[in-house]
Every structure is written in structure tokens, then in C-alpha cells.
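To assess whether ligand presence alters the predicted conformation, the chain was also submitted together with flavin mononucleotide. Input:
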Amino acid sequence: MDTRTENHPTRLDLPPLHLGELTIDVPVVLAPMAGVTNKAFRRLCREYGGGLYVTEMVTARALVERRPESMRIIDHDPDETPRSIQIYGVDAVHVGQAVRMVVEEDRADHIDLNFGCPVPKVTKRGGGSALPWKTDLFTAIVRTAVQEASRGNVPVTVKMRKGIDDGHLTFLEAGRIARDSGVAAVALHGRTLEQHYSGTADWDAIAQLREALPDVPVLGNGDIWSAEDAVRMVEQTGVDGVVIGRGCQGRPWLFGDLQAAFEGRSDRFRPGVDQVARTIYRHAELLVEMFGDEAKGLRDIRKHVAWYFKGYPVGGELRARMAQVPDLATLRELLDELDLSLGYPGEAVEGPRGRAGSPKKPHLPDGWLGSRELGDAERLGLVAAELDASGG
Ligand SMILES: Cc1cc2nc3c(=O)[nH]c(=O)nc-3n(C[C@H](O)[C@H](O)[C@H](O)COP(=O)(O)O)c2cc1C
């Protein structure tokens, strides 16, 4: 592609990632992101590089009930392989049913379990990143999922945070439980629930987990904004693969850079405004096709437009109009107003993007931290946690 430029060479020869019988040639994972990693966005990312591209999270119960939105989330394009989905659940029964349904109906080749969601309305009922604190519940969910998935040889992985806060870390113990339950890999986002998306991800914790679990692949997640960051994470922590979230928002080509770096090549995508504009239009078309609804697709593209143009010299007034774009024809008109001759702006486009914010006191059920085992009242509260889940 014409926008590829030479950069400082960074070499890395990491072997393919093995998840059960699946082989992921480029050990890179698109992090599940609710509202972002749908079929349309995954297609754009996949076109740039190899890796494992995970759906948005789907709630176990909603999936078992076959709600239309859940069925939309787990749908894949016919050429998408492997088909990877993420399930969020708070009890072994519903997670087990959801996994069984996926496996029996051959709807995925890989299942990730979400234990990282920091949303207060979820954690205050004991779900998401609050859950691994209850080791009995965590064990039951992971074991059941692995057992159900094994009937179809579908590998299961877990994705989690470091713990609730620095005084209540869970990742080493949860990693061991997951390993002993037969997961194919463990992914760690190097932040606690308390941190939400603030501060920096703790790559030392990722290294610690890698060392503690020599017999299962460990994937590192948090603050990879470039291929060079990914290489540094592998070098510093020894992980078997990297998981990329916010860094690819508005930059699907990052997966091309990652593949290049992992193959020891130094070429990188440096798109100018014209390529960004073409990608936005295509992304919008894919969203419209996916939702089967032009207005819905265009509502969804608006946040992506802001990410795509981060660091590009696009005027405030044009940005504001794009933030309200109602249909594809208007999007085309607005994109035509851009100066397509402008090249890659450099540093302004790189570095952190997306959600950040500040630490938040963890919202937990009363007395949650008092015991590592689940009480009866807490078990009831969890049911509501699942009904409220919306991403991680
Ligand atoms: C908009 C958004 C939605 C997310 N949704 C999910 C989700 O559905 N499941 C999940 O496990 N993590 C979710 N996450 C967390 C990411 O997968 C990832 O762990 C986190 O962003 C840290 O990685 P990063 O520094 O590369 O962004 C979400 C993050 C963002 C920013």
C-alpha cells in the first residue's frame, strides 16, 4: 500500500499462538470491545493483518434466550476464521448453557470469558472484575465452560484484570485456577478494577503471571498503542501474544503494523487524509449492511469518525457536522470537503486514545471483600449483574 513507510526496524520472531487445536499465526488479538468490535470493524482490521479477532461481549443469558442483538453479536462473516466470541456470565449454569449452545450449533471456534468488566452497575452486584474474588464461583464458571466447550474441541480462554484494587489482587490465583480448569490461554489487562482505564497498565504484573504459569499461553493487555509497544511488551514480559484494545480505535491498519513487526519487518502504515476518508466511508457502509439500517449504521460511525480523525488537521466545524451525520450521502458530502492531499501528521496520531479517566472507588456488594466464597444473598444479587452488563 502506498502509505507504508520505513521506520526504525524492530525485530520479533514470536512463534504462532496455539489455543488448543487452533493456530493463530500472528499472536495478536483484537480485544473484545462492546460497541466497537462488531463484524464490520473486525472485517476492516482483518484485512490488514493476521490474528484473532474477538466479538463484543455477549451475555450468557441473553444468548441462551436467543435475543436478536445477542445473535447479531456472535455472527461472523463467512470468510472469518477462526470465529471468536466473548461470553460474559455470572453463574456456571447460564455460562454452561451458552457455551453448549455455541458448540452444538457450531457458532464459534474459540470462546473467551470476560472477567474484566469494571462498570459500576455490574461490579456492585459482584459481576465482571469483581467476580474472580469469589474463587468458588470463578472456578465453577471456568470449569463448566471448558467442559462444555471440550465436546466440540473449542478452546476457552479467560480475560481478567489484576484484581479489585492493590490490596485485593486476584490475577495469580485466578490464573492458576483457570489453568487447572483447562483453559487454552489467560489474558491479563494490567489494571485493577479501581483503576478503570486510568494511569498506566502494569506490565510487571503481566510478566509475573507469565512466570507463574509456565504451562499455558499468557496474553498481555493494556496500553499498546503501536507495533513498537507490542514488541516492547513481548520483550519485557515474555508473553505469548498481545491483546489490543483502544490503540486500534480509528486505526484498523495497526494490525498491519503488528504483523509486520512480528515478522521482523519495519514498514508501517502511515495513512494520509484520503485513505482515512476512504476507510471511514467503507466502515460506514459495512455498519449499514450489518445493522440492515442506514440510520443506525450512521449513528454508530460517529464515534469512529472522531477516533479516525484524532491528530489529523480537520476543522472543528466539519468534525461537529460529522458528529451528527444522518446518512451515507451526507457522509460522502462531508468527506468530500476534506483536503485529501494532507499526509500523515505523525506523532499527533500516535500514543494513547479512547477511554482514560481517573480511578474510581470499586462498587461492590456489601461485605463482598469479607470472604473469598460466595454467600447466598450474593448469589441472588449476581442475577441482576448479568442483566445490566454492557462491556468492559
Ligand atoms: C469501548 C470499550 C469497550 C470494551 N468492552 C469490553 C468487552 O466487551 N469485554 C472485555 O473483556 N473488555 C472490554 N473492554 C476492555 C478491553 O478489551 C481492554 O481490556 C482494555 O481496553 C485495555 O486494553 P487497551 O489498553 O489496549 O485498550 C472494553 C474497552 C473499551 C475501551
